[in-house]
Design goal:
This protein has 553 residues and is an alpha/beta fold. The chain has 22 helices and 13 strands. Strands 1-2-13-12-10-11 form a 6-stranded mixed sheet, with helices on both faces. Strands 6-5-7-8-9 form a 5-stranded parallel sheet, with helices on both faces. The protein binds 6-O-phosphono-alpha-D-glucopyranose. 6-O-phosphono-alpha-D-glucopyranose binds next to loops. GO terms for molecular function: carbohydrate derivative binding; glucose-6-phosphate isomerase activity; monosaccharide binding.
């Protein structure tokens, strides 16, 4: 089924134009003032779904803004796009494929049929295959070449075949399975990383998962070959490779050619994008580290968010609202980036997954119809764990010249309570959103300095530096605790938010042609670095840098 976006240029839409005018009218808008006037603002601009509570009241919005943004979603065809995604239409138009990560977390009877093929049984068969491997490992039935049980699993993969599984495994560490199998991630083509991981491993008790949708990714193949050689050097033999290497890929022949028996190749499909694939067999290291039940709970949480996304009215639909707020700041307030600031050690690396999910999906300058966009698309995503950022880059959030909307995420309960740490952590999170919104006026700064007994000259000298403009927007996502279901829902929330924005911008969120050029050029440059005689580079800068390498290599 081919897919056609309902609109091409969002700036032509009536709601877009109305939002532009509305933005102008909001020039002197003060969040603090509207909070003071409206006792219902928090209730009005907060919603919960799937165990997540979203407070978006600290945003530069009014009731009218929300209505106009929802009208934009309607006019841009977000409801039709959601339907198209769930129906398995080829919403990845440049590659003419559906984007069906949602099918990976659907109960079998709900999964769509694509080109006459029911996806449910395929997904369930892959889950069953994962479960068999997980059980064999956890029950110590999977033995290495010397008869030892597996103690360490190394996931060799990069991009979507790395970030999602790594971030989830880390975030759900408190749910680690009692088998205690350690999961490591080897992604970069950097011998230091290879060395750092392999030096603590024993070949006889290590299992490598070569995780690559295409099985053509340079970094992954080089690392897989190096791992294989390391295994042989440590005493393993070719005949035992199958006990120590499995693969997850849609390119079965390439995995088999590498030496992995076909029955140890878990499937991937072209209807799942790499950055949306942690829900598939690419998530095997998650299941090994946490157990299959927790992996299924993660899928369950994501499915709950899928249902919410599909069914909730736009004005109470978390991914839609967050997507619309992102468009509001990006296109109408010139915010170039947003910060993701989780107040939870378990989510310390989450932003890395979010960066790939958002920036690889929506970092596009061409619309689905092949025309160049005349407006800004994908934002820069950055961030890190709170409260560490408060002692570093939050200065710029509070007093810098750029407007940077923030997503705060904080659970109420810690998995590892220590005295009253969690209340302090939660308080720090709230203090940041409050400070961003309320700021500190000149009068408040002066009063504060006078109260300290400073003379008037000192008060006037220091006061301008102490002023904090405030009126800076944020969302706060809170939850009882970060468990597999809620993490699944949180990731799915951001996946759908990114999709909503892609639909509004008229771009395809599911391809990534931009990453290809560097890969192609990399091969030429590698040949230049290793050529026997001085090669001719394409331009003088690269020539000089190639020469430098050749001088010292
Ligand atoms: O899973 P693979 O085929 O090895 O791909 C790994 C990654 O590399 C590509 O270059 C893409 O940018 C990513 O979207 C993808 O996840």
């Amino acid at each position: 089924m081919s897919y056609c976006l309902p609109v091409s240029d969002p700036t032509d839409l009536i709601s877009w134009k109305a939002l532009k005018a509305h933005r102008g009218a909001l020039q002197g808008f003060s969040m603090s003032e509207v909070f003071a006037k409206d006792p219902n603002r928090f209730e009005q601009f907060s919603h919960s779904a799937c165990g997540l509570f979203l407070d978006y009241s600290k945003n530069l919005i009014t009731e009218e803004t929300q209505s106009l943004l929802v009208a934009l979603a309607q006019e841009a065809g977000v409801p039709q796009a959601i339907k198209a995604m769930f129906a398995g239409q080829a919403i990845n138009t440049s590659e003419q494929r559906p984007a069906l990560h949602i099918a990976l977390r659907q109960p079998p009877h709900e999964a769509p049929v694509v080109q006459g093929e029911a996806l449910g049984p395929k997904v369930q068969a892959a889950l069953a295959q994962m479960e068999r491997i997980v059980q064999q490992l956890q029950q110590r039935d999977w033995r290495g070449y010397k008869g030892d049980p597996i103690t360490d699993v190394v996931n060799i993969g990069i991009g979507g075949s790395f970030l999602g599984p790594q971030v989830v495994t880390e975030a759900l560490q408190p749910y680690a399975h009692t088998s205690g199998i350690r999961c490591h991630y080897l992604a970069n083509i950097d011998s230091s990383e290879f060395h750092q991981i392999t030096r603590c491993l024993k070949a006889e008790s290590t299992l490598f998962i070569v995780s690559s949708k295409t099985f053509t990714t340079l970094e992954t193949l080089k690392n897989a070959q190096a791992a294989r050689q390391w295994f042989l050097d440590q005493g393993g033999s070719e005949a035992c490779i199958h006990r120590h290497f499995i693969a997850v890929t849609s390119n079965i022949p390439a995995a088999v050619a590498f030496g992995i028996p076909e029955h140890q190749v878990l499937p991937m499909w072209d209807w799942v994008g790499g950055r949306y694939s942690l829900w598939s067999a690419i998530g095997l290291p998650i299941a090994i580290a946490l157990g299959m039940d927790q992996f299924k709970a993660l899928l369950h949480g994501a499915h709950a968010m899928d249902q919410h996304f599909r069914e909730a009215p736009l004005e109470a639909n978390l991914p839609v609202l967050m997507g619309l707020l992102g468009v509001w700041y990006h296109n109408f307030w010139d915010a170039q980036s947003y910060a993701f600031l989780p107040y939870d050690h378990c989510l310390r690396d989450f932003v890395k997954h979010l960066q790939q999910m958002d920036m690889e999906s929506n970092g596009k300058t061409v619309r689905q119809d092949g025309k160049a966009v005349s407006y800004s698309t994908g934002p820069i995503v950055w961030g890190g764990v709170g409260t560490n950022g408060q002692h570093a880059y939050h200065q710029l959030l509070h007093q810098g010249t750029a407007l940077i909307p923030v997503d705060f995420v904080v659970p109420v309960q810690s998995h590892n309570p220590v005295t009253d740490h969690q209340a302090w952590l939660y308080a720090n999170c709230l203090s940041q959103s409050q400070a961003l919104m309320c700021g500190k006026s000149r009068a408040e700064a002066e009063a504060e300095l006078r109260a300290k007994g400073l003379d008037e000259a000192e008060v006037q000298r220091l006061a301008p530096h102490k002023v904090i403009p405030g009126n800076r927007p944020s969302n706060t996502l809170v939850m009882e605790r970060l468990d597999p279901e809620r993490l699944g829902a949180l990731i799915a929330l951001y996946e759908h938010k990114v999709f909503v924005q892609g639909v509004i911008w008229g771009i395809n969120s599911f391809d990534q042609w931009g990453v290809e050029l560097g890969k192609e050029l990399g091969k030429d440059i590698y040949n230049q670095l290793t050529a026997s005689t001085r090669p001719q580079a394409r331009e003088a800068s690269t020539q000089g840098l190639v020469d430098y390498f050749r001088q010292y290599a």
